[in-house]
Amino acid sequence: MWRPVPALSADLYELTMAAAYWMNGIHAGASFELFVRNIGENRNYLIAAGIERALRYLEEFHFEPEEIEFLRQHPAFRQVDSGFFDYLAALRFTGDVRAMAEGTPFFADEPILRVTAPVIQAQLFETALLSMVGFETAVASKAARVVEAAQGHPVSEFGSRHAHGTEAALYAARAAYLAGCNGTSNSEAGLAFGIPVTGTMAHSYIMTYSDELESFIDFSRVIGERTTLLLDTYDTMRALESILVAGLHPSAVRLDSGDRLTLSKQVRARLDQAGLHDVKIVVTGELNEWRVDELLRAGAPIDSFGVGTEIATAKDDPALSCVYKLVHIDLGAGPRFRAKLSAEKHTWPSCKQVYRFRDAQGRLDHDVLASVSEEIPGGEPLLRHVVSGGHLIEPPPALEDLRARCSAMRAELPDHLLRLEPDHSYRVEVTGKLKAMLDHLREAQGVARVASTG
Amino acid sequence: MWRPVPALSADLYELTMAAAYWMNGIHAGASFELFVRNIGENRNYLIAAGIERALRYLEEFHFEPEEIEFLRQHPAFRQVDSGFFDYLAALRFTGDVRAMAEGTPFFADEPILRVTAPVIQAQLFETALLSMVGFETAVASKAARVVEAAQGHPVSEFGSRHAHGTEAALYAARAAYLAGCNGTSNSEAGLAFGIPVTGTMAHSYIMTYSDELESFIDFSRVIGERTTLLLDTYDTMRALESILVAGLHPSAVRLDSGDRLTLSKQVRARLDQAGLHDVKIVVTGELNEWRVDELLRAGAPIDSFGVGTEIATAKDDPALSCVYKLVHIDLGAGPRFRAKLSAEKHTWPSCKQVYRFRDAQGRLDHDVLASVSEEIPGGEPLLRHVVSGGHLIEPPPALEDLRARCSAMRAELPDHLLRLEPDHSYRVEVTGKLKAMLDHLREAQGVARVASTG
Description:
The structure is a homodimer.
Chain A: H1 12-23, E1 29-36, E2 46-47, H2 51-60, H3 65-73, H4 82-90, E3 96-99, E4 105-106, E5 113-118, H5 119-124, H6 126-149, E6 155-157, H7 166-178, E7 183-184, H8 187-193, H9 203-208, H10 212-223, E8 228-230, H11 236-245, E9 252-255, H12 260-273, E10 280-283, H13 289-297, E11 304-307, H14 309-312, E12 322-329, E13 352-358, E14 364-371, E15 380-381, E16 384-388, E17 391-392, H15 399-411, H16 415-418, E18 427-430, H17 432-445
Parallel strand pairs in A: 6-7, 6-11, 8-9, 9-10, 10-11, 14-18
Antiparallel strand pairs in A: 1-5, 1-12, 2-4, 3-5, 3-16, 13-14, 13-15, 16-17
Helix pairs in contact in A: 2-6, 3-4, 6-7, 6-13, 11-12
């Protein structure tokens, strides 16, 4: 029930470069690493997500005949031999992947996924891998903040309607659940991933009726003990009063607009006065981590939150600075590690590993970014070998297990990173060897060495 | 080649409400309108998009057996009769749709699409319609600004890698093209929609080689006269010099980083000095409408732009305040028009039409939002009847035609809206009849009348 990804879901230049490699006989093994340049002003850490989707895409990668035909007809391939298209038609992923476990907190410059394969293959996947991993990571990272702000109160992801299309809605639900949300409103996510799917009722149901109470009675009769009644269509306290007078006993009531601090207090008091201590209060409507935090700090007696658009679009940072860069190629006489050298946005050369170091209390202390050719004792290596020769080494972990591990790993983050206020103080050390490799490449290419990275 | 949309791509409450309507025997005809509450600080107008996708979704809507089975097993439906699931299994869209033509500029509160159908159906589509129409509209509206800023220089949409998954990348490419971009990097969009697909080369191709010039030569030999060479991997001017010395004659060179005002001037001067007046300069890299405007105003000799993330994610406003609201239902003894009445976010009742009025020069002057029961002489009605009894009345217009009409309609916008600076002065008049209907509903529901809308 994962939605399929066409092979043509790629920037054209991945394919013209493939043609150029093929025509020039370049089939060397290459490694590309996917990482985030900058975690963004509004995040103190990121949560790796979208990895399972990426691995399934790689494992299932193939061109359909009409995709090949489209490329044959495209003018960019006018001078390309017909054999190239036969090559594409037979192409499957045969490489290896190292990746962080989904749900792992990570930081800028740390590779979360490395593809090692013949260069044509590894390059081809760039566009799709970036969009899949970047998007789910953006959503998971936002959702984790909302979950932290909710201090243990359940958060449901309700943002499908404002997601970037229905596929984005599905994977947003998955990423949000992975990062600690308790469920989603997205029904497809229930079928596809077994995520708990929850829902209440809309204003439109109530507006269908001339009489609000009649709509509550009709709805409750069908949905039964799981009913959540929506109070704010006309007048919140009046709606509550009519529910009490009619003797309805919903499982919860929902507040979707207005001053939800005051209203939640009034509703809680009235429910308690009526002896309905077990009726919960659900709050929704343009929430994010800051508003959730504000409500709870002010003592709002809210039991759970539905958070939509802000999670499903990662609204305050909808596009991570995710990149996928060549770091090594088995070709040429000079050094085989590679990096982008420009002063403005250089990358670290060679295949790398991230080592995580914890303090005596088990909280994260710092990470070390190292070349795989180095020994870094004492740290936990975060990238693991997950795909070999084009196939998953083990079945992917269950989403429930990933979610539980993500929760445990979030609990290891230092308190200053878990706060909502910006804090970019987490230390990621780059080894001297990586710095030396970068300098070596710069010298080889005659590019000026930049003091700040020297 | 449109990607399919599962029926379960819906918030669960659309389905629990369907069950409640069905169990209570409510099959009345209803009308829902899709509109944007607020066009946002960073937009002066919006461009309607995603309509064709929405209509195809409606026409093809059906539940798969495993979707029905999922719902049967879900605890929210425990008290729902088995007949409801048989009803869902046979459900197809049988209603009517009125919609604006894709590419039409529109404003807050103006319905761009109305669904009229039995209430269960019309309600069910809410989540998917909002995400499809809202997303493409967000992208088209952003792209139109970039196209305006580019003053006739071609703009390609290059944002697939940072789109919210690969489906979002595909429809972002379509929306951007509709709104005036000249092409996309997304190959699937070429196959699916016939959009011109363009591309250059990546830094990684160059980095594969030990020698930059060798990579240029190899690439040019394969791609031929359409080659665009990327200059900024190591040193922009040095790369250009090597190209000239080697006698290469690419169709264009690309600048992806650094001070692109200065670099474009230096590159243009050097190309002209070498007699290569026909070699164009393409600029990419973290561009948006403001940076494009700034570069061109400063006299940068740039021929075309590649704009990625900012268009494909509508980054500065990634989620429009799109809603889908019940406006009419054939039920009950009182008035049959409906509206949300809360002071904070009320809606306008009844099925509506948008009438557009132009000045003597043919530029947009103002719009009138009216009930369909009113006669508004002299204005152009924007909503047209496009689906009848569940089927498209005519085949959808060709994307090329929509794009040409969008361009013509953008040219009719007043200059003050076409500028990048915020301007929300366009007048949308609400008729006295709509205001009276809202007051009537408020009185019927005993909700306080709000002066500002009286």
